[in-house]
Amino acid sequence: MVDVQSSAESISGRPAVAEAAEQGARLVDLWPLTKAEHLANDAKYAEDLQVRISMVLAQLMTGEDVTIPDAEYVYEGAEDIPGRPQELVDALMAANDAIEAAAQAQGDQSKALADLADTLGSGWDQARQQDVAAGVAKAEQSLQDQNKFSESSQDKEGVAQALATSLEICRDLLQRAGADPGHAATAAPILVYVNEFNERLGIPRAFLSDEDVVHALGLLNDPEAFADLLAPLVGAEWDRHRQEVLWDPEEAKRRAKEDDERKSREALQAKFAHVPEDLNKPPVEL
Description:
The chain has 286 residues and is mainly α. It is 70% helix and 0% strand.
């Protein structure tokens, strides 16, 4: 299995990880949030993230084409959706239960992860559960070591170290769970656990689509390729999170108006581009 510490050290300096770390450092540098609008934006982002993650988990669990409206409907409390398979709705409900349970989990993280596997119907046998539990014990030790020896996870070096650790723990646990592109549902509880592990590492949660997950499962034996695939996806989500926290509706309206005016000028210029220029005519501002 993966030697998490040495593997994390080897990938922490990779360009993809370093770039994602810069994006992460810009996000965590916003905290603590003090403006009411930023707090409200962050709460809205968290709700949206849970909806998107529950959609992906349900896709992995069922193989069905789950949509954002499906996930939103269930997140808001629906227990059935007219015209949609009940299996899909049940998977979405289980996904939300798992996400919320993971966020509140304390104490024995191995048991918490085993409970997530039961909730998500991942079908781990006893041997898999024991192997994953051993991996969780290593992950929790890595967390203690990281917190002990790292002065700060808010600068880009600290974020890079934390992200590399997270990626290698994720890869190790996925291998232990027997996940592969043909058994993507097995990965679902690992993804939920790792997102909460990130919070305890001091880096924000991330999002992967079902296609991203399946692609990553084909790279479990190549730590560099695994990191090079996932780090940019994590960094992009962190950029999205930052943009949504800082979103200002008035500024957005102003920029939209400027963009509309620019497009109008360009369209007008294009419309009359074929007209010969009259050199004797005074210039007109558009």
